[in-house]
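This follows on from our talk about sequence and fold. I would like you to pick a protein and set down its sequence and fold. Go ahead and set the record down below:
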Amino acid sequence: MSKQKKKVDAIQYDYYDSEDELFIGTVSVDSVQQCEEWKESMSINNKSVVFKLDTGAQANIISEKLFRKLSLPDNKITEKTSIKLVTYDGHKISPIGTRMLKCTFKDRKYNLKFFIVPTDSQPILSADTCSEIGAIVRVRAVDKPLTKEEVISDYGETFKGLGTLSKTHHIEVDPLIPSVVHPPRKIPAAVRDQVRTELDRMESLGVIAKQDEPTDWVHSKVVVRKPGKLRVCIDPKDLNRTIKREHYQLMRLLKNCLKQSCFPDLKQHMDSGRFVLTRIVQNY
């Protein structure tokens, strides 16, 4: 019966009460077909070394054979260790020692500690090292795109009705400006029925009201074709010119807003005096 060297594919730490024994679980998968492993290339002494990224490992491992091939200027194992690496099946591996190695990953330099083992095992990077160099990122939440159905289900009240304000706003107009009456625009025969249907719908919702008596102002009607429907609106540019502007002292208004609990993130910029939002409040 031939003896085969164990292949180290995964490493993790468990601590014993003994100071000279450290449990390092290894899984031998020589005869098991694997899916594609996570590997990254790292440069050590200008030599490319392919490491396995093992999130279950808490130590970086390289073999003595690979360590010698790196041809470091000081090719010595600087620190001996009494820690023994124990596999899942109880097999113990005594590391030759440890060595701090200068590594380069994606143009960034790192000084990493490696356990050097006598077995010809695959180089492994620990979970801490993978996180430090950014090879693996821990994802604590998964973003799920919102669907139309979810938005309507969660915020159904927002889409009901016309979205009118609770208070009535009074707009003052200048009585000295003469009123303007625009002649009615012709509507193409092909869309007259659709326009009539839309006007009836808007009247039933209370958006518009039928006007049978004479009026001082008549605005042009504008019909805009949208996908699958028509939008009917008016062009009140002449009426807008008669509206009296309400003048407020903006600084005082914003200071009053700052006192309200609904504007907790409105802050004044010290240099320019402008007001800016320090963050976007998502919970209304």
Residues 248-284 form one domain. DSSP finds six helices and 14 strands in the chain. Residues 11-18, 26-33, 268-284 have pLDDT under 50 and may be disordered.
